Amino acid sequence: MKQEALIKALETHIDTDSSAHTPMMKQYLAIKNDYPDTFLFYRMGDFYEMFYEDAQKASELLDITLTARGQSAGSPIPMAGIPAHSVDQYLERLVRMNLSVAICEQVGDPGKSKGPVERKVIRVVTPGTLIEENLLEDRKENLTASVFVSGNRAGIATLEISSGRFVGYEVDTEGMLLNAIRRINPAEILASDDQTPFQDGTQVREVPSWYYDPARTESVLCDLFQTKFLDAFGCSQYPLATRAAGALILYVQDLHGSILPHVSGIRYTQESSLLSMDEVTRMNLEIEIGHDGKSHNSLIRIFDGCSTSMGARMLRRWFNSPVTDRTELRSRHDAVDWLLEDHVFERIDVSLKPVADIERILSRISMKTARPRDLIGLRNTLEVLPDLCRTVEGSCSSLIKSLQQDLAPRPDIFELLKQAILDEPPSTIREGGVLRDEYDRELGELRHLQKESGDLLLEMEARERHDTGVTALRIRYNRVHGYYIEVPRSRQGGVPDHYVRRQTIKNAERYVTEELKEFEDRILGAKGKALNREKWLYDQLLEELIPHIGPVMLCARALACLDVLANFAKKAGTLNLSRPELVEESRIEIVDGRHPVVEQMIPEKRFISNSTLLDDEIRMQLITGPNMGGKSTYMRQIAIIALLAHTGCFVPAKVARIGFIDRIFTRIGAADDLAGGRSTFMVEMTEMANILRNASENSLVIVDEIGRGTSTFDGLALAWSCARDLSERIGSLTFFSTHYFELTGLANDLLGVRNVHLDAVEHGNGIVFMYSVKDGPASQSYGLQVARLAGMPDHVIEDSRLKLYSMEEDYVEAADKDRDQTRLLPSTPPEERDVISRIQSITVDDLSPRQALDLVYELRKLLSD
User: Fold this and answer.
1) How many CB atoms lie within 10 A of CB 542?
2) pLDDT digits (tens, 9 = 90+) for 673-685
3) Which of 456, 465, 550, 733 has its CA 20 to 30 A from that of 783?
4) Under 8 Å between Cβ of 189 and 147
5) Could you give the CA distance from residue 177 to residue 134 in angstroms, rounded to a whole number?
6) What distances in angstroms separate CA 632 from CA 600, 619, 624, 782, one per listed residue?
7) Rounded distance between C-alpha atoms, residue 182 and residue 339, angstroms
């Protein structure tokens, strides 16, 4: 019946007439009215309560009990609650569902409130604006993006509120906007309510169009950066990104009620300065997610050996946004070279071990939500700076020198934190015990009084025993009754008249005296005063740290960069990497290149390396060879080597000379896009169309099979035309693999096309893959041998051989007799294959002379037939 009443109450429209509700529900509904699409966590004592629809939804999503709290407007009030001390775990679950939560706290004094205690929303938690350590992935960024479109251009701004990184971009809307958003991968995207920036169903959070008003956004950013003009930040060159940035700050400030002092500037980036890769390419190169949908076989998983979370996040940015600026790349390569000298990176790695995630700690300090252990993390990080500076002193690397300047020790902040915070403080300031006694005289005196109370209590207890003659008398304390004197019931005769009975229990009576009440007031007063004093001092300590956030944030980013570079040096040794050479001519030359992820998965790392060369003369490799022969791995490793070179990392090759590359395109494998209603063939064609429309002569293009999913001649014609267009019109650096052996004739028809193949040899009825790249086209496809490896029944394989021979003979007879035709398999007649199979099945040692003679006649008959 109770559940039925609750459901009925939910089905009934909430009466918004304030006179129909209790004062507390009036307050709740007034606050909820400001956050209609957000869960409202309404603080009541030790719980956060939800009412009406919020309660029903929360009970289903969080698996908590739906109950009721009295009545309001004549109906029971559906209610569900969570303990305040467990709020983070429930927030995490709701945010993972892409939901938002408004945190409403009691801000008034219950003792002074005539009606409901004053409450207000102190912040709104959304997927992109998390700052809590336990709600964030420590090695991944959590970004909010804002988009503003005007004509065929779009401005994008991104903010990681947990670290203060604020970046702006401007891109063309056709293709590039969605590509940029996929690369950034924000947790939340804002857009004006009068715009629809994405046509593919990408979810956005609409905000009022006035958020993007130019005058308003300029004013908001000037206030944030504490400046009268934005010229110093380059905002005038990126007007659309600036409007997106201002709207983003307005949104975050509304949610947090804070001016975000840790966001001290915005950095604009031109998309043209990045080595562009679309979402398909990032997936095909398995940068973050492996082919199995998990991260453990991804490129980042292999290369992320960073000691700090800050470094891991920067590494991820470098891999997802590789740069094309040669000066910047050479400075990174120079730094890695220097760190390898005398194994300097090993000393840096040791020094970085105690470094905390001070990027995020500083953001929590700025919003005054930092916990005591955050401050210990900051202190421990500052403690390693002198040693780090000594380690990198004298470096010949310009990048290391610039990092050293930002790593300058901060003894003032270190000493402040050392003097203020205990070495092992509790997790929160709630119960005190965080600050040292000597940090503040008043706090020390109040704590001293608390410590003395134990001795005073023992003295009082001894005196009362002596005066009453009751040796079993005890003075005790509990939260309900405070301090009391407990006397066994058998000794009640010795109780003095000035004892006032407080409570009767089974075997004793409990009393209080005027002296004991005065003692309690003094001690509990000292405890409360000490806690209030400590909380005030802690708040003041955070205020004192806020002005230092800017320079310490520079230090945090220098630590992250040094961590990434030291990690690159470490990986150069463990993964056998070498420095790439960035050359001016259009060229990809690789000697003994390897696929770094596949190599780690092969037992004993016996990976077959391969070399390659594309330059001004040879612009395309046409790659043939059997399935499973290594074509995809070979092509991917070339793209990965190019990518790594553009992050600043060394590469898995003996030699790598890389010319200027503006974009990497890949079209590798395909499957039906069921959600998008696209077949395998349509997916292939869409990806190939994107390449042909957007690739340039400076692009690196990887095409692994095109033209599948349709008839043989349709597919062959499309593959031939695509290869020709890439070679003749675009002239990109192209690796084009195919099973259409007819395409190998392009090397004769087009300049700059070279045939290569992945080698394999037959062994008995099987095949051995050599995984080595050889000049010229493959001699055969080995399709039937691969089918045998897959476990195909022998009779199906034999039937396939006969059918294949028949088709080949028909095809060759119909072909132009004057033109050489590459055969898919050697044209061994079926009868000869039968003889070969029969011979292979014989166990010679088991044959008698008579059986051997019979066998000769049998074989002769097979041949004559």
Assistant:
1) 17
2) 444 556 788 888 8
3) 733
4) yes
5) 32
6) 17, 19, 11, 17
7) 34
Neighbours of 201 (CB within 10 A): 7
User: Helices (H) and strands (E) in the chain — how many of each?
Assistant: 28, 27
The CA distance from 228 to 216, in Å, is 13
Backbone angles phi, psi at 352, to 5 degrees: -80, -10
- Which structure tokens are listed for 297? 């076989």
Q: What is the pLDDT of residues 755-779, one digit of tens each?
A: 999 988 776 666 777 789 999 998 7
Q: Is the pLDDT of residue 185 over 90?
A: yes
Is residue 689 classed exposed, middle or buried when 0-12, 13-18 and 19+ CB atoms within 10 A define those classes?
A: exposed
Q: What is the pTM of this model?
A: 0.84
The label of the residue with tokens 């996929």 reads 182
Matching CATH number, 581-792, of 3.90.226.10, 3.40.50.1370, 3.40.50.300, 1.10.10.410: 3.40.50.300
d(CA 376, CA 370): 11
| Pairing verdict, β 700-704 and 663-668 | parallel
Closest CA to 12 of 78, 58, 81, 79: 78
User: Tokens for 753?
Assistant: 């096309």
Using an 8 Å Cβ cutoff, are 578 and 658 in contact?
A: no
pLDDT at 823 (0 to 100) = 45
Q: How far is CA 610 from CA 19, 68, 593, 737, in A?
A: 81, 71, 5, 16
Phi first, then psi, for residue 415 (nearest 5°) are -65, -40
Considering only the top CATH level, what class is 138-273? alpha beta
2-125 — its CATH code?
3.40.1170.10
Please report where in the chains the tokens 């670290």 appear, as a residue: 163
Q: What angle separates helix 214-225 from helix 239-256, to the nearest 10 degrees?
A: 70
At residue 482, the 3 state secondary structure works out as: strand
Of the pLDDT bands very low, low, confident and very high (cuts 50, 70, 90), residue 585 is very high
Cα–Cα distance, 832 to 809 (Å, whole number) = 16
What pLDDT digit, counting tens, does each position of 527-547 carry? Answer: 888 999 999 999 999 999 999
C-alpha dihedral sign at 666, 669, 671, 677: positive
